[in-house]
Amino acid sequence: MRAGRSRLEPADVALPAGVGSRRVKGLRREEVAVLAGVSADYYIRLEQGRETNPSPQVVAALAHALRLAPDARDHLFRLAGTTPRLRADALRDQVHPDLLRLLDAFPSAAAYVLGPALDVLAGNALARALLSPFGGESSMPRILFTHPRADEVFPERPLVAGAAVHALRLNAARFTDAPEIDDLITELHDGSAEFRSLWADQNVKALTRARKVFVHPQAGRIELTYQSFDVRDARGQELLVGSALPSSPSEEALTCLASMAAPDRPH
């Protein structure tokens, strides 16, 4: 809540700026309380964690007052305990054979399955070739924040890294029984100042449609549009499929990369 109001200015919510300078960035607590239709004292208790049982109606009013996007709104509901927390599948690190076969049904796209901690659980030949510069590292957050070749392969790495942190924070609230998420957060928080800064922003957003740019050492520059799909029978897993525009240089580079990719799936 504190992070949410810090991102808003009075003009964003049709409030007068008032007289004099503001000591802190963003909206005042009293202003958010007015927008949400609650008392300032109650809002302060909520933000400070001294009030722990807000009604769903109050949470909805706060989400509206803070202009939260859908993912952030759902995140606020989970933090308030007004929606059931999800449990990741007990076999969340195992990809069903049917899904493995589906990955290979995308011969001209990079398709892979992510776990709750955004680790690559499986990928088709093209996805493995695309990520081959990172050796055997399967954790996308580790790649983005700690791998020495991350900036070389991802020319827009800060954007991709920010999206990964937002998705990781969302999953940390969604899947409280996934200790690998907490372990990864602790590791990166201790080892990366960039991760600490992004984590402190409190932003949450699921992986949805996104554009990613790769510079592969053999195939060159490849621009892909990714679409994400939840794996319904393995809660916590996501299928990501990245494709290039038809007849584009990226499609040609992807075809070149596919010709170099090993056809067999490693065991």
In terms of topology, how is this protein built?
Blueprint: H1 2-6, H2 29-36, H3 40-47, H4 56-65, H5 70-80, H6 97-103, E1 110-114, E2 120-123, H7 125-130, H8 140-146, H9 150-153, H10 157-174, H11 179-191, H12 193-200, E3 210-216, E4 220-230, E5 238-243, H13 249-260
Antiparallel strand pairs: 1-2, 1-5, 3-4, 4-5
List keywords for this structure.
elongated; MLTR_LBD; Beta-Lactamase; alpha+beta; Cro/C1-type_HTH; 267 residues; Lambda_DNA-bd_dom_sf; 434 Repressor (Amino-terminal Domain)
In short:
This is Transcriptional regulator. Pfam families: HTH_31, MLTR_LBD. This protein is of the alpha+beta class.
Structure description:
With 267 residues, the chain is of the alpha+beta class. The protein has two domains: 2-80, Orthogonal Bundle (434 Repressor (Amino-terminal Domain)), CATH 1.10.260.40; 97-260, Beta-Lactamase, CATH 3.30.450.180. It is built from 13 helices and five strands. It has helices spanning 2-6, 29-36, 40-47, 56-65, 70-80, 97-103, 125-130, 140-146, 150-153, 157-174, 179-191, 193-200, 249-260, and strands spanning 110-114, 120-123, 210-216, 220-230, 238-243. Strands 2-1-5-4-3 form a five-stranded antiparallel β-sheet. β4 and β5 (238-243) form a beta hairpin. α2 crosses α3 (40-47) and α11 (179-191) crosses α12. The protein is elongated and about 65 Å long. The N and C termini lie far apart (46 Å). The mean pLDDT is 89.
Could you name the CATH class of the largest domain? Alpha Beta
Going by CATH, the architecture of the largest domain would be 2-Layer Sandwich
SSE ordering: HHHHHHEEHHHHHHEEEH
Number of strands: 5
Q: What percent of the residues sit in helical stretches (DSSP H or I)? A: 40-55%
**SS-derived structural category:** alpha+beta
Distance between the termini: 46 Å
Count of individual domains: 2
Taking all residues together, what is the mean pLDDT?
A: 89
Number of distinct helices? 13
* Percentage of β-strand residues: 5-15%
Shape: elongated
Q: Which segments are poorly predicted (pLDDT under 50) over 5 or more consecutive residues?
A: none
Main beta-sheet strand count, sense and barrel state: 5 strands, antiparallel
The radius of gyration over CA amounts to 21 Å
Write out the strand line-up for the largest beta sheet, numbering strands in chain order: 2-1-5-4-3
CATH topology of the largest domain: Beta-Lactamase
InterPro entries: Cro/C1-type_HTH, Lambda_DNA-bd_dom_sf, MLTR_LBD
Pfam families: HTH_31, MLTR_LBD
Organism: Streptomyces nodosus
Domain HTH cro/C1-type: 22-73
